[in-house]
TrEMBL record:
SUPFAM superfamilies: Helical backbone' metal receptor (SSF53807). InterPro entries: ABC_Transporter_SBP (IPR050902), ABC_transptr_periplasmic_BD (IPR002491). PROSITE patterns: FE_B12_PBP. Residues 2-257 form the Fe/B12 periplasmic-binding domain. This is ABC transporter substrate-binding protein. It comes from Brevibacillus borstelensis AK1. One of its GO terms (biological process) is cellular response to iron ion. CDD domains: BtuF. Belongs to the bacterial solute-binding protein 8 family.
Length: 266
């Protein structure tokens, strides 16, 4: 089987399912795993070059609707009659579902079931660990700075926050993504700011880009110096790697629990 992935989180699921020999092409933003970086590229995940996809003669394209705008890729796949499946993760529980869906489409049923079960078990272990936290801090996730985009209730990062023993300050918006303002963030006065700018390398983001915002100088997160520049790939991609991000988050907001996390005991 020849497989093309056109979304980074899909690429990561394929990797975890052991499909190294079957994957023949990736979108430009699939930067993990390192050992797949030599594979042919078919364009940015929002503007896939379908000519390049067709040239790879795929038996299956694994597409996604995880980011607004990706529906154009799906429409093009349908128009060209290219065999494909579409993942549409919104919540944390959609990740094991999608693992099983990819496993079914690629003939990796047993591997997918094993991986999905491990995902659920590990996340539950992290949840149980976080229950011992003495506080429930308020988190503000920043996906993009100008205009501000942040996850709403119907998003896996709201679930990640809750599993980690915290709360997303924009969980009262019953949508996956919220276009917010600095004033709206200030009103919610988060205890922690989690910066995960989509598609931006971590080395290009400086703390001062957040801490120097004049409107936020009295915000709890700024006063307590609790601004976290996080690896986007561990939080913005609904794949098994998000569990590593989840453990990292617990360590940041509940440092007293760090030694009790599963990764710390391995």
């Amino acid at each position: 089987m020849r497989i093309v992935s056109i979304c980074p989180s899909n690429t990561e699921i394929l990797y975890y399912l052991g499909l190294k020999e079957e994957v023949v092409g990736l979108d430009d933003h699939s930067d993990w795993p390192g050992e797949w970086q030599h594979l042919p590229r078919v364009g940015p995940d929002l503007t896939i070059d379908m000519e390049k996809v067709e040239a790879l003669k795929p038996d299956l394209v694994v597409a996604s609707l995880s980011v607004p705008g990706m529906e154009k890729n799906v429409e093009a796949l349908i128009a060209r009659r290219i065999p494909h499946i579409v993942l549409n993760p919104q919540r944390f529980t959609d990740i094991p579902r999608d693992i099983r869906l990819v496993g079914e489409a690629t003939g990796r049923h047993l591997e997918a079931e094993r991986l999905a079960n491990h995902f659920v078990e590990r996340s539950e272990t992290i949840r149980q660990t976080a229950l011992a936290a003495e506080t429930t801090p308020k988190l503000y996730w920043e996906w993009w700075p100008n205009p501000i985009y942040t996850p709403g209730r119907d998003n896996w990062l709201t679930d990640v926050s809750e599993i980690a023993g915290a709360m997303n300050v924009f969980a009262d918006f019953s949508v996956p993504n919220v276009k917010a303002t600095r004033e709206m963030v200030l009103e919610r006065n988060p205890d922690h700011i989690c910066v995960v700018w989509c598609g931006i390398e971590l080395r290009r983001i400086k703390p001062a880009m957040i801490t120097d915002r004049l409107e936020w100088q009295e915000m709890a997160a700024i006063r307590k110096k609790q601004v976290h520049l996080l690896e986007e790939g561990l939080y913005c991609r609904p794949s098994p790697r998000i569990l590593d991000g989840l453990e990292r988050l617990v360590s940041l907001i509940h440092p007293e629990l760090a030694e009790k996390l599963p990764a710390s005991r391995n």
